[in-house]
Design goal:
It is a single chain. The protein has one domain: Rossmann fold. The protein is 41% helix and 19% strand. The chain is built from 8 helices and 7 strands. The strands form 2 sheets. The chain has a 5-stranded parallel beta sheet with strand order 2-5-1-6-7, sandwiched between helices. It has a two-stranded antiparallel sheet with strand order 3-4. Helix 6 packs across helix 7. The chain is globular and about 50 Å long.
Length: 219
């Protein structure tokens, strides 16, 4: 059941930690449209849960499964990079399954380098001490054959929601930060990114929890 009521950061941390049971590594997904703050929320949860101790929680980004530009060029999909079929969803699901099986002392996950706009193999080490894996991405709740395999590996999926005007502002700023001029960034945000955002927004009601800005910030 989707829970829309505001929750503060303490409540979010408590709920995330409660997913872990003895002998069971838990996986929490954070979905949301581009620019909604998924990564910021995941990073904050991991940082607060770990504190100064060992890596009890770990973050694994979906963005590590972007197809490389050379493959997008081959497939003719470079102009809509970020759409569901520009990711290796099957590979992502396989990694999550491997993490859930919890049979290895160390698992390497791919990361994503925003300056290069390319995935990086084996960039994220996940030690066996990590009992909660937090993974964030746009399409965790998509009802598509490839993406439903991802959802089946997750104990819960939260939906990160942000005021639309602020989301667009942040997204344009991010594109500019990584090299696009303002007009190019705005065109991409209102075109390719918005089509993806509309697709993601339609999955909101499938989430276990909706996290708004006030709940995350504690305001």
């Amino acid at each position: 059941m989707t829970l829309d009521e505001p929750r503060d950061l303490t409540g979010l941390l408590k709920r995330a930690a409660s997913l872990v049971r003895p002998g069971h590594r838990a996986l929490l997904g954070i979905a949301g449209s581009p620019g909604s703050g998924k990564t910021t929320l995941a990073e904050r949860l991991v940082r607060e849960l770990n504190g100064d101790g060992p890596a009890w929680a770990a973050q694994v980004p979906m963005d590590g499964f972007h197809l490389a530009d050379v493959e997008l060029d081959r497939l003719g999909r470079r102009d809509r990079k970020g759409a569901p079929d520009t990711f290796d969803a099957a590979g992502y699901a396989a990694l999550l399954r491997r993490l859930r099986e919890d049979e290895e002392d160390l698992v390497y996950a791919p990361g994503f380098e925003r300056t290069l706009e390319q995935p990086l193999a084996a960039a994220v080490p996940v030690p066996r001490t990590a009992r909660l894996i937090i993974t964030e991405g746009n399409y965790l709740l998509l009802r598509d054959a490839a993406w439903t395999r991802v959802r089946s590996q997750l104990d819960e999926v939260w939906f990160r929601e942000l005021d639309e005007a602020e989301r667009l502002r942040r997204l344009v700023a991010r594109h500019e930060q990584f090299g696009k001029d303002h007009e190019t960034a705005l065109a991409w945000v209102l075109g390719t990114d918005q089509r993806n955002a509309d697709l993601v927004a339609a999955t909101r009601d499938r989430a276990d929890l909706v996290v708004g800005e006030s709940a995350f910030s504690g305001e």
